[in-house]
Design goal:
It is a single chain. Helices cover 10% and strands 28% of the residues. By secondary structure, it is mainly β. The protein has one domain. A four-stranded antiparallel sheet has the order 1-2-3-4, with no helix packed on it. InterPro entries: Trm112-like. This is UPF0434 protein ACFP3U_36180.
Length: 60
């Protein structure tokens, strides 16, 4: 499921306020923080981004 482009323009990482980009695949979509010092990966569940730091994971 692809997120609308206008939504990606306004969403930021709640940890560091950097922009987010789409990652993952169709089966497990994710939003990835572009901040060099942060890099958290947030899940997207049922088309809804879960922007909670406690739900995010560090990149592998």
């Amino acid at each position: 499921m692809k997120l609308e482009s206008f939504l990606l323009e306004i969403l930021v990482c709640p940890q560091c306020r950097a922009a987010l980009t789409e990652g993952g695949g169709e089966e497990q979509p994710e939003l990835v923080c572009t901040g060099e010092s942060c890099g958290l990966v947030y899940p997207v569940r049922d088309g809804i981004p879960v922007l909670l730091v406690d739900e995010a994971r560090r990149p592998a």
